[in-house]
């Protein structure tokens, strides 16, 4: 996987070099590159995003771009909001399906990331796995950030409001994973997070919910990515 990380870093550096000369107006003083990184649950996209950003920020390149990961997990609807829905039991059981996210809020954030470069910081929500709920303003994207790697499951799908994200990104990456590997990773994560108390229950939840979401993501992201990345077993959950 090391060669993949290196290739992704070089790809961003190339895109960054291409981005700077083309900027005009306020953006010419501080353009910003936005990468949309998507993939099914358990594909390893979070690990990829964190590693690539870490390597970028540690790069010996004298003009390396200041980079940050912007996770979309913070746009899960809070449990309190799910409890108010007419189908609250289904919403909680199937948390993670598209309609349990604030997709429009994520679209607004990506717009803000594009417009705020060099001007002002942007606050983004994060997700607290211990609380099992989003944390408002959990992340600050400073005005001088050059590269935002926005990572999340539905970033590239072709249905509203998610379909408005891809055109806002400078480069779109999709992570591909074998369903069995994704199932095992997600099930282990459910147990570790206390979502399920046995591996048997966790596997059932992964197969009946997360893998179904994964199939939807792959099907509805077809033809909407610039780069396809293969996830391998060495990636942590």
Strand and helix map with partners:
Layout (H helix, E strand, L loop, with lengths): L1 H21 L3 H4 L3 E6 L6 H13 L9 E5 L7 H5 L4 H6 L9 H13 L6 E7 L4 E9 L5 E6 L18 E6 L2 H14 L6 H22 L6 E4 L7
Parallel strand pairs: 1-5, 1-6, 2-5, 6-7
Antiparallel strand pairs: 3-4
Helix pairs in contact: 1-3, 7-8
By CATH, the superfamily comes out as P-loop containing nucleotide triphosphate hydrolases
Number of strands: 7
Q: In angstroms, what separates the terminal alpha carbons?
A: 15 Å
Q: What is the count of helical runs?
A: 8
Encode the helix/strand succession as letters.
HHEHEHHHEEEEHHE
The biggest sheet, with number of strands, parallel, antiparallel or mixed sense and barrel status, is:
5 strands, parallel
The general outline is globular
| CATH hierarchy, class | Alpha Beta
For the residues shown, what is the average pLDDT? 93
- In terms of per-residue confidence, which ranges show pLDDT below 50 for 5 or more consecutive residues? none
Question: Roughly how many Å is the radius of gyration?
Answer: 18 Å
Strand order of the largest sheet: 2-5-1-6-7
Count of domain modules: 1
CATH topology: Rossmann fold
* CATH arch. level architecture: 3-Layer(aba) Sandwich
Beta-strand residue fraction: 15-25%
Helix percentage:
40-55%
Structural class: alpha/beta
How would you describe this protein?
The protein has one domain: Rossmann fold, CATH 3.40.50. 41% of the residues lie in helices and 18% in strands. It contains 8 helices and 7 strands. The chain has helices spanning 2-22, 26-29, 45-57, 79-83, 88-93, 103-115, 179-192, 199-220, and strands at 33-38, 67-71, 122-128, 133-141, 147-152, 171-176, 227-230. The strands form 2 sheets. It has a 5-stranded parallel β-sheet, sandwiched between helices. The radius of gyration is 18 Å and the shape is globular.
């Amino acid at each position: 996987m090391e060669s993949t990380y290196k290739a992704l870093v070089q790809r961003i550096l190339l895109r960054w070099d291409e981005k700077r000369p083309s900027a005009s107006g306020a953006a010419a003083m501080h353009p910003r590159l936005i990468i949309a990184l998507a993939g099914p649950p358990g594909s390893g996209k979070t690990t990829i995003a964190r590693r690539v950003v870490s390597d970028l920020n540690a790069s010996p390149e004298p003009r390396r771009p200041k980079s940050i990961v912007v996770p979309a997990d913070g746009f899960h609807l809070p449990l309190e909001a799910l409890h108010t829905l007419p189908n609250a039991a289904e919403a909680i059981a199937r948390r993670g399906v598209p309609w349990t996210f604030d997709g429009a809020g994520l679209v607004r954030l990506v717009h803000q990331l594009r417009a705020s470069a060099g001007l002002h910081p942007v606050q983004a929500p994060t997700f607290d796995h211990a609380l099992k709920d989003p944390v408002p303003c959990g992340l600050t994207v400073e005005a001088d950030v050059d590269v935002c790697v926005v990572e999340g499951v539905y970033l590239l799908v072709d249905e509203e409001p998610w379909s408005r994200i891809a055109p806002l990104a400078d480069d779109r990456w999709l992570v591909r994973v074998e369903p069995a590997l994704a199932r095992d990773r997600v099930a282990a994560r459910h147990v570790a997070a206390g979502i399920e108390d046995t591996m048997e229950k966790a596997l059932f939840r992964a197969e009946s919910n997360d893998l179904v979401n994964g199939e939807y993501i792959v099907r509805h992201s077809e033809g909407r990515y610039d780069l396809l990345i293969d996830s391998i077993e060495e990636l942590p959950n």
